[in-house]
Design a protein that fits this description.
- With 171 residues, this protein is an alpha/beta fold.
- It has five helices and seven strands, in the order βββαβαβααββα.
- Helix 1 crosses helix 2.
Amino acid sequence: FPSHDMVAGIDWGLKGDYTCVSVIDTVTNKEVWLDRVNNLDWNSIILYVIEILKAWNVSVAYVESNSIGNLIELLWERMQQEGCKSDIQSFYMINQRKQDLAIRLHSAMDNGEIVFLPDVIGLKEMRSFIVVNLATTWTVNNPKGHDDTVIARMLANFAREQSNTEMMWVF
């Protein structure tokens, strides 16, 4: 897809959690890649993510940055060494932002603005992901297990929205 703009969302995980990458084509608004890995060291995970970014020629990736220390800097340094040209945007996930991303994703899905790959794990996680209004605040969680694919997809959808907004300003 040389003329298509690819964006990604990345949720980091290690050992009991998963690192997940979702790639969306902003021209067709279709997810073209979704994968998750775990039980790898950080160096291997970083190289894996870079391979995906390069393979899909991702223009920008929104990366969840909670509690990962200097991982973003390590990713950026390794990207330079590997010749990866993707732009990386750090996204610190607090409950309010997670809730906002969840609502945006739900709206995009309901309005047919985005199509996801029919991934069994991703579908299971999406079905168990809950956004609850507790009178004055919202809470977002997944009481039945992992939410790695959901977070990656929310970030990829956000990147898609940002990309489409920027394109509108060009015209």
